[in-house]
Amino acid sequence: MKRTLEIKDLHVNVEGKEILKGVNLTVNTGEVHAIMGPNGTGKSTLASTIMGHYKYEVTSGEIKLDGANLLDMKVDERARAGLFLAMQYPNEISGITNSDFIKTAMEARLDSENHISLFKFIKELDKAVSDLKMNSDLPHRYLNEGFSGGEKKRNEILQMKMLKPNFAILDEIDSGLDVDALRIVGENVNNMRGENFGAIVITHYERLLDYIDVDYVHIMMNGRIVKTGGKELIKKIDLEGYDWIKEELGIEDVEVEKRQHVVLGSCAINKKNEAKK
Amino acid sequence: MMLVDLVKDTNYIYLVDGVKSSGNVSSLDLQGDKQINVIYDVFNKTKIVINVKKGSNIKLLEIFNNVNNDIDLDINVEEDATLDYVSLRKANEKININVNVNLLDNAKFYEKNINSFSGEASIKQINNINGKGSSMESFGVILNVTSNTQRFDYTTIHLGDASLSKMRNFVINKNASITHMDTNGVIKKGIKGVVISQKTKGILLDYDSEISANPLLTIDEFDCNASHGASIGAIDEEELYYLMSRGLSRNDAEKLIVNGFVDPFIKAIEDEKIQEEVKENISKLL
Hints:
heterodimer, A: alpha/beta, B: mainly beta, ten-stranded mixed β-sheet, 3 helices
């Protein structure tokens, strides 16, 4: 069954400052959307807001999942409703093994009487670990603790493969990945394409999109999606950067906050001792 | 599997008010290389003495089964002996426990304890690091969900040259409970080359609970390496957000994080049946 994630005129503040200034985006299952744009344009803010991060305040607009108001749902309810966010900086949590965590998260989607068969779980996890060419000891290590940047990103994709969300948001999943890891991650995301899976892939660079087949490309600037197109946009941005879009659409860079040097004070000195010298 | 069923198991020593009732080991004078499991039922004030004989290597699992009265516990580790000690402490009533540890030359004492008492509790432990080159490592978890006040007062006194002590305690409070955690370290004048480290981490699972941690080092000797510290706070919101973003409710995410602190202690228990029971008990408390 087709599902729809719909964002309408979304405005979001972070610590009193408006970051998103009217985002509109509709994603259906079966579609993969890429969001590109220069640094600081609100891409990660959009990802975190969809997932319900506590620091992001929606001041107006709406996010709906199959017509239901997502903004009324808690973070865990959004996840159980079918959303997944592969994070840019996943947390390290000591004492919880990866496999225990994933199994607990899978069981959170079931009724309290139902449990996942341990045999089936291990078999599925082993396959996902092998698909991602991860170290076989990784599921038994504590969640992200001591993982390299690349291992953390693969671990996010491992969780996505196991939890099988309807909508995955991949927030700069390519950062920290070497060329081989990028290909493996890209291929694994691509393999999830299907009528029950939609994705929003947030990235700065086109190299991840060499491996993920995208249907739509959106350019985000100054807190809004300013241009939408197909794959041809990726190549053009790779060759020419973002300046041509600013010129074409008459977008001016947001004025950087003016900063001024101030003297905070100076340390006290012992004049008595100074005099003795 | 109830812990009390283990009293019928010949691998366990069953002590009622400190007196042996069944089991296949004759005394708590422990010698050789072996694993010893001890279960306590305490109805009257009781004194228990554990002696680990010279050169021995003992693993001791101590389980508080049906504890209703105060306990004085002496643990003596003789020269060149090692005691690997796991203690699962709980009590049905208000309780006072006094533990006195004595380490002789080159003795080693590795302690892991989980404390989950049902009411008021006062636990005092004095670690006398008497022997030259002796060492102790102590890791404790305190789960106070009782709405009562519990006090833990741990003192480590170094009297042996080149001795070492390391203490880590995790305090977890819920349901408007109050826990006071005092850790004291003493290095006497003339005792050289001591290494001492004491840290406490407190986690508050609700707004009405309180934890106080008072680390204090009294050092009368320059030749030493000493550190101590304490931190108290709520569970990191970012960690909760991460777990919840995978579908865990806030309560389940908190439980998982707290279990993360307790897990290394549970893994130190070799008996899988006991492991499961401890896990279940902790899960119920949270």
